[in-house]
Structures are given as structure tokens and as C-alpha cells.
Specification:
Layout: H1 2-20, E1 30-36, E2 40-43, E3 56-59, E4 61-62, E5 67-76, E6 82-91, E7 100-101
Length: 103
């Protein structure tokens, strides 16, 4: 019984070791994160009730295909005011000339 248990534990440890050492290079590494200008904002309703959730969409224009949306940063400036900053990422990929829009 102890021999069967030690074989099982050895199998589990070796499986975890081999799968955790698998390098997956099928993705592009982010090289840079910087601010991006918000071109337009789409708000579904101009009013809302307390505790309601509303979708607010922002649109940005990226100049290269190697750029994409990274995230937002909110800074509270008053009780009901926030400054919103959008960020884009850049990675190393093949560069094509032109304007690319991602929504």
C-alpha cells in the first residue's frame, strides 16, 4: 500500500513539474503602456437611478496594428467627479502602415 501511494505521489509531482515548465510563446509580449486619447464616449442613458449599473463606452483610434486597449484609470477629483484616463499597449509584431480602428 505504501509503495502504491509513493508511486502516485511521484507521478503527481512529476506531472506538475513537466506541465509548469511548458513555455508558451504563442503570444506577443507587451513592450509599452501609455496614455491614449479618448475620441468619443457613448452613454446609453443620460440619467440613472441610485445603485444602477450603466455601460459607458469609449472609443479610441490606434495608429498601428500592434496597439490595443489596455485599461482605464479613475481619479476621484470631487464627491461625484472622476478623471478617466485610457491606456493602450504596444507590442512587437509586424507593422503595417495605415489607421486601424478597434471597437
Amino acid at each position: 500500500m505504501k509503495n502504491l501511494l509513493s508511486i502516485f505521489i511521484l507521478t503527481v509531482i512529476s506531472s506538475v513539474t513537466f506541465t509548469s515548465c511548458n513555455d508558451d510563446d504563442d503570444y506577443e509580449t507587451i513592450q509599452l503602456v501609455e496614455k491614449v486619447k479618448i475620441d468619443s464616449v457613448s452613454i446609453v442613458n443620460d440619467t440613472m437611478n441610485v445603485f444602477d449599473i450603466q455601460s459607458i463606452r469609449t472609443y479610441q483610434k490606434f495608429t498601428q496594428q500592434c496597439e490595443g486597449f489596455y485599461g482605464y484609470d479613475y481619479v476621484h477629483t470631487a464627491d461625484f467627479d472622476r478623471n478617466v484616463t485610457a491606456y493602450k499597449f504596444k507590442n512587437q509584431c509586424q507593422l503595417w502602415i495605415g489607421n486601424f480602428h478597434r471597437f
